[in-house]
Protein backbone atom coordinates (compact mmCIF):
# COMPACT_ATOMS: atom_id res chain seq x y z
CA UNK A 1 0.00 0.00 0.00
CA UNK A 2 2.85 2.36 0.79
CA UNK A 3 4.47 1.48 -2.56
CA UNK A 4 1.25 2.27 -4.46
CA UNK A 5 0.94 5.60 -2.68
CA UNK A 6 4.53 6.55 -3.52
CA UNK A 7 4.12 5.53 -7.17
CA UNK A 8 0.96 7.64 -7.40
CA UNK A 9 2.68 10.67 -5.90
CA UNK A 10 5.66 10.18 -8.20
CA UNK A 11 3.40 10.09 -11.27
CA UNK A 12 1.54 13.21 -10.11
CA UNK A 13 4.86 15.01 -9.57
CA UNK A 14 5.99 14.09 -13.10
CA UNK A 15 2.74 15.41 -14.58
CA UNK A 16 2.98 18.64 -12.57
CA UNK A 17 6.58 19.15 -13.66
CA UNK A 18 5.62 18.69 -17.31
CA UNK A 19 2.80 21.25 -16.96
CA UNK A 20 4.94 23.86 -15.25
CA UNK A 21 7.81 23.66 -17.76
CA UNK A 22 7.64 26.38 -20.45
CA UNK A 23 7.41 25.08 -24.01
CA UNK A 24 9.53 27.86 -25.55
CA UNK A 25 12.52 29.38 -23.85
CA UNK A 26 14.34 32.36 -25.38
CA UNK A 27 18.06 32.08 -24.73
CA UNK A 28 19.36 35.23 -26.40
CA UNK A 29 17.77 37.99 -28.42
CA UNK A 30 18.69 37.94 -32.13
CA UNK A 31 21.07 40.63 -33.33
CA UNK A 32 21.22 41.81 -36.93
CA UNK A 33 24.74 41.84 -38.36
CA UNK A 34 26.13 45.26 -39.24
CA UNK A 35 28.15 44.04 -42.24
CA UNK A 36 26.80 41.33 -44.52
CA UNK A 37 29.02 38.41 -45.43
CA UNK A 38 29.00 37.28 -49.03
CA UNK A 39 28.49 33.64 -49.89
CA UNK A 40 30.66 33.73 -53.01
CA UNK A 41 27.85 32.81 -55.38
CA UNK A 42 29.34 34.60 -58.40
CA UNK A 43 32.80 33.14 -57.81
CA UNK A 44 31.40 29.63 -57.43
CA UNK A 45 29.31 30.06 -60.58
CA UNK A 46 32.30 31.21 -62.60
CA UNK A 47 34.42 28.35 -61.28
CA UNK A 48 31.70 25.84 -62.20
CA UNK A 49 31.46 27.34 -65.69
CA UNK A 50 35.22 27.14 -66.29
CA UNK A 51 35.33 23.56 -64.96
CA UNK A 52 32.41 22.54 -67.21
CA UNK A 53 34.09 24.12 -70.23
CA UNK A 54 37.38 22.34 -69.55
CA UNK A 55 35.59 19.02 -69.03
CA UNK A 56 33.68 19.53 -72.28
CA UNK A 57 36.88 20.24 -74.24
CA UNK A 58 38.57 17.20 -72.68
CA UNK A 59 35.62 14.95 -73.58
CA UNK A 60 35.49 16.31 -77.14
CA UNK A 61 39.19 15.64 -77.73
CA UNK A 62 38.96 12.20 -76.12
CA UNK A 63 35.98 11.25 -78.29
CA UNK A 64 37.69 12.50 -81.42
CA UNK A 65 40.83 10.52 -80.57
CA UNK A 66 38.73 7.39 -79.99
CA UNK A 67 36.98 7.82 -83.36
CA UNK A 68 40.33 8.31 -85.13
CA UNK A 69 41.78 5.21 -83.42
CA UNK A 70 38.83 3.11 -84.58
CA UNK A 71 39.21 4.37 -88.15
CA UNK A 72 42.93 3.52 -88.14
CA UNK A 73 42.21 0.09 -86.68
CA UNK A 74 39.51 -0.73 -89.25
CA UNK A 75 41.71 0.26 -92.23
CA UNK A 76 44.62 -2.00 -91.25
CA UNK A 77 44.45 -5.57 -92.61
CA UNK A 78 46.90 -8.17 -91.44
> What percentage of amino acids are in beta strands?
under 5%
Shape: elongated
User: Given the structure, what is the number of helices?
Assistant: 2
- Give the helix/strand class: mainly alpha
Could you name the ranges where pLDDT drops below 50 across 5 or more consecutive residues? Answer: none
Main beta sheet, described? none
N-C termini distance: 103 Å
What is the helix/strand order?
A: HH
Over the alpha carbons, how many angstroms does the gyration radius reach? 36 Å
Share of helical residues: 55-70%
In short:
The chain is mostly helical and 78 residues long. It contains two helices and no strands.
Secondary structure elements and pairings:
Blueprint: H1 2-20, H2 41-75
Q: What key attributes describe this structure?
A:
78 residues; 2 helices; mainly alpha
Protein described:
It is a single chain. This protein has helices at 2-20, 41-75. By secondary structure, it is an all-alpha fold. The protein has a domain at 43-78.
Amino acid sequence: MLHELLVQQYEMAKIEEARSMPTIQVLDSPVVAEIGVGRGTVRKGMLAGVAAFMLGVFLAFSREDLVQARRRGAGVTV
